[in-house]
Amino acid sequence: MSHTATGQTPGQPTDADRRRGFFGRIWLFFRQVVGELKKVVTPTRRELVNYVLVVLVFVAFMMVLISLLDLGFGQVAIWLFGDGTQAQ
């Protein structure tokens, strides 16, 4: 097993965690979650509109591209295998 620079094995509780107890570790987790959520920056209205437009344009482009590819491959399949009617 590899050890960190402090000599602890990753994933193993430290002595401080053992002293803290089960509910203390849960409380610490929630405090850290709240601390991370405070770092989140919400976009401005202009940025949000810009992001939404970029996503919508990208989705529309991908829909057109996939539709054209599907149509093209379908035509190739019809040309290669026929349209399903028997020649009499």
TrEMBL record:
Keywords: Cell membrane, Membrane, Protein transport, Translocation, Transmembrane, Transmembrane helix, Transport. It is found in: Cell membrane; Membrane. The keyword Lyase does not apply. The keyword Endoplasmic reticulum does not apply. It holds the Pfam family SecE. It is a single-pass membrane protein. Belongs to the SecE/SEC61-gamma family. Coiled coil: none annotated. InterPro entries: SecE_bac, SecE_sf, Translocase_SecE/Sec61-g. The chain crosses the membrane at residues 48-69. Gene3D superfamilies: Preprotein translocase secy subunit. This is Protein translocase subunit SecE. Component of the Sec protein translocase complex. Heterotrimer consisting of SecY, SecE and SecG subunits. The heterotrimers can form oligomers, although 1 heterotrimer is thought to be able to translocate proteins. Interacts with the ribosome. Interacts with SecDF, and other proteins may be involved. Interacts with SecA. It comes from the Bacteria. Essential subunit of the Sec protein translocation channel SecYEG. Clamps together the 2 halves of SecY. May contact the channel plug during translocation.
